Amino acid sequence: MFAPALAVFSQFTHQALGDRLVAVVLYGSVARGEAGLDSDVDLVVVARDWPGGRMAATNAFMAVEDAAMATPAWEALRAQGYRAEPIPQLWSLAALQAFSFLHLDLATDGIALYDADGVFAQRMGQVRARMAELGTRRVVDRQGWYWDLKPDFQPGEVIAL
Predict the structure, then answer these.
(1) N or C, fewer C-beta in 10 Å, the chain?
(2) Closest CA to 116 of 6, 41, 18, 16
(3) Alpha-helical segments (H) within the chain
(4) Over the stretch 60-96, which tens digit does the pLDDT of each residue have?
(5) What is the pTM of this model?
(6) Listed residue (9, 4, 1, 144) closest to 85, CA to CA
(7) Which CATH number fits domain 3-127: 3.40.50.720, 3.40.630.30, 3.30.460.10, 3.40.50.300?
(8) Where are the domains of the chain?
């Protein structure tokens, strides 16, 4: 049910960024197939650069979000009772190549809606390989879930990701 809206978002993003666009990635509850009516739509948009810095990019990208949300595909989701609000994280190519804990979610649940030159897939392959080396696992409990980065961690040990 989210596929048409996600295709529109990806298309509008590509139109706005052109060759600067590296990847559009869905993650979170929608990607895991666990979305409820109040779920937002978590996305990472990776660009080669964001001219003017993060605030300028955020302000400029709001027009893309607004245009996408005004389409019939997004309106159809809201008509079905879904909150249907895209929440994009705007990343540079450098941020994709670095590490944040969001990389664990992306490597596990991320769905590339657009991946120029396979850059996202390659980076997530590296993250998944490192996760396997460390034994990283998602632990589910009554309150939700958390990442156990290295189950056999020893005090004083330094973990490089």
Answers:
(1) N
(2) 18
(3) 3-17, 29-32, 53-69, 72-79, 93-97, 102-109, 119-134
(4) 889 999 999 999 999 999 999 998 899 999 999 999 9
(5) 0.93
(6) 9
(7) 3.30.460.10
(8) 3-127
